[in-house]
Amino acid sequence: MIPRARHFVAAALSSALLIVPAFTGIAHATSAATSASDSKVYAVPLAKTLADVKRVADYWRPDRLQKTDLSTPATPGSGAAASTTSSGAAAGPAAPAASAASAASVKRTASTAGVSPTLPRKGTAANTMGKVFFRFGDKEYWCSASAVSAKNRSVVATAGHCAYDSRTAKPADYWIFVPNPGPGGSAPDGIYVGASISLHEDWSGKGDYDFDYAFVTVHRGFTWVAKDGAYVMQDVGRLQDNVGGLGLELNKKPGTYAVTAFGYPAGQQPDGSHPYDGKTLQKCRPGATRYTVAPGRDLQKGVELTPCDFSPGASGGPWVISYDETRRLGSLAGVNSLTWNRDAKGRYDSVSAPYFDTVTGEVYRRAASLGTIPNVT
């Protein structure tokens, strides 16, 4: 239902947090802050062993991947969207204040603020963007995501709600990243099983949309190869070596830069239409950014891009500064989190992301520091 004039709808781009399935998840998933200095980082293991990797891989065999083109993320119910008044949503804060932990770690994270984009080992253009597929309980979902340049060459950025359900305090299961997905469920650049989620404790603890982001460390990739009438896994190496990685920008003041948002939207628009099918990477043209808030989502320091008519499915897709169309590279400055219907008409008209600050750099740095299994086959 479209709200009355002078009100907006801020709705989650994916239904993963808005539908309440019966969760089974990963048994005994543990998590802990990495150290006292990294106290805002919440770390959750996914597939830890080779047996875990093969369990996830076996779930996403070619016959199941072929069906993912037919799936679309469910649309949030009308009662799930958070309505905010025009004055509240339009104004936004003057500037996000750094927390004590953030201020104390500025010096340590200076290098993360300057992470540069990286081309793949072979080729002159990157393929960093793609989809993540996963389960919460017995229900399958998918979101958008991107590879980020890192020293372990194995980091994926997406929305927090595309990796961890804060309501049940459980991570996604059977989590994989497929960069540059092709038709019919093909994965020309490999399939990468999630090894560990790094996120902000305020997402895992209370679902605060100021921290709706996750950096997922992934294992080496594989492809399915037909052999003797069956499919077998073939190791294809590390993510960044194969597809490249976006750079990372932190503490960028909204209004001082233009950003291009990417994703695979597929969900329903407010008027019931489905202009996107989720099969093709879409982008909203480069536009200016500004601060925004959504009290119903605990969003106090969001960043909004207008115009952009993304719908569910685009969650987790990257916001890229200085995007180079030829090299298909730029620097990550946010991820799609909420979509907005500010004019209360038939289509969404803007999208917002959590503000990437110094603590975001701490979360990223943790994901970039982890090692993974040397061979997945």
TrEMBL record:
InterPro entries in alphabetical order: Glutamyl_endopeptidase, Peptidase_S1_PA, Peptidase_S1_PA_chymotrypsin, Trypsin_dom
UniProt entry tagged with the keyword Electron transport: no
The protein's name in its UniProt record: Peptidase S1 domain-containing protein
SUPFAM superfamilies recorded: Trypsin-like serine proteases (SSF50494)
Peptidase S1 domain: residues covered: 132-354
Pfam families given in the database record: Trypsin
Sequence segments annotated as region (Disordered): 67-88
Gene3D superfamilies recorded: Trypsin-like serine proteases
Recorded superkingdom: Bacteria
Biased composition (Low complexity): 71-88
Keywords linked to the UniProt accession: Signal
Signal sequence extent: 1-29
